[in-house]
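Data availability (excerpt). All sequences and predicted token strings are deposited with the supplementary files. A representative entry, Putative dipeptidase, is shown inline so that the format can be inspected without opening the archive.
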Amino acid sequence: MPPNDLAFAARERLGYSVEGLDRGSPLQTDIDRLRQGGVGGQFWSVFAPSELPPVDTVQYTLEQIDFVYRLIARYPETFRFARTGDDVRRSWDDGKVASLIGAEGGNSIGGSLAVLRVLARLGLRYMTLTRNYNVDWADSATDEPVHHGLSDFGRDVVREMNRLGVLVDLSHVSADTMRDAISVSQEPVIFSHSSCFSVCAHPRNVPDDVLASLSGNGGVVMVAFVPQFVDADYHAWFDGGGVGTKPRVTVQHVADHVDHAREVAGLEHIGFGSDYDGCDDFPVDMADVVGFAPLLDELATRGWSAPDLAKLMGGNVLRVLDETSAASVGAIG
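Structure token line:
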């Protein structure tokens, strides 16, 4: 159940229209390609640019949640809203794509725990604590450190997320924020779209000590497919302004991160993060949501069994949903 930025992409390119998403969409996601990729669940990610004032970030977030609801209503034969692990299983049993909501960036709550509670009632199941820039209460991986982790209010945000059954997502945050949040959280955390720092030293990736801590926390790292997170040569080329020949990134590069995450974090603590419709470039043969299929084939050639792949494709995240479903349902009241 990887995250997917379709809602924001639809805002930017389709004016939030849900029409024409069955096949042939100009985006990286449509129903036909989801089926080809064997995708049975998605966290539909909603987010607002970091530079917006708080009132606008809340509006952006609510508009995209509305898009997710309208998407599900427009294609009820394909999508079903899901909040709990059992909701996901029922969707799978009926051949539908389980549709959950995640917010990418703590700016989505506008600095308000009350807004967080409202979003939880609407079905928010994870929130990334930052995006590309710091928020007032947490440091981003790609900004100058201010808090050196979480502020006191940031710790309160984590505790309230635990109470509401909103998963703490540590993609995008600094390594100090990762460690701080894991020490505070009483529930499993996730990394919704990050890769392994030891394989590619990008600041968005997860250091080995943090990966190793997931076995104690119960969390899951969901490996991203973004080329600059996956391959060191591409990372250097991208940061250098894209001058010269673009390095070739393949499914094998992504599989190397999956293998490393398994070695350090353990089989029970890894998943797929992808980041489709959140990035313009992807590895060869992985340009859209069909790209899950060649990755599964590559891992199978490396000796991954069918039960192992099932955990990777959603089983591990489903476990985390199960452990937090009661709190999420309680947030409705």
